[in-house]
Design goal:
alpha+beta, GMP Synthetase, Chain A, domain 3, 2 domains, 4-stranded mixed sheet, 3 helices, 7 strands
Length: about 140
Amino acid sequence: MTVHLERINDAIQFQAEAETGYTFSIGSEPEHEGVRPMEMVAFSFGGCSSIDILSILKKQRQPVERFDVAVDGERATDAVPAVFTTLHVHYRLEGEVEPDKVRRAIELSLDKYCSVSKMLEPTVELAYTFTVNGETYEGGTRSPE
């Protein structure tokens, strides 16, 4: 895999291009246009696990009508670099899906299939919860090894 970043102005902003040709902006500060690098890590975690979960549920013939995910991260406040110490992900699903199958799909993703989860696992506490058709379920936590 190859990605390309090009600085686009005197601020610390980049135009990023993926191997697929998709482009987006990366910025270093909230006032700069673009996604900040640590936000990208949170997006990547949520996106990677969501793709797995939806694929698993599709194979199980669980019709998901609506799906969204929120990732909340906490970073070290007294260290540089300020790495993530915890990431909590909450999945919301609607459809004729069984909560036990959703839980199993999430666990398979986080424990086996999601490359981003596996990269973060040694240093970040990963936790999840989920909601199915308005009912919230407790999930689990993976502590750093």
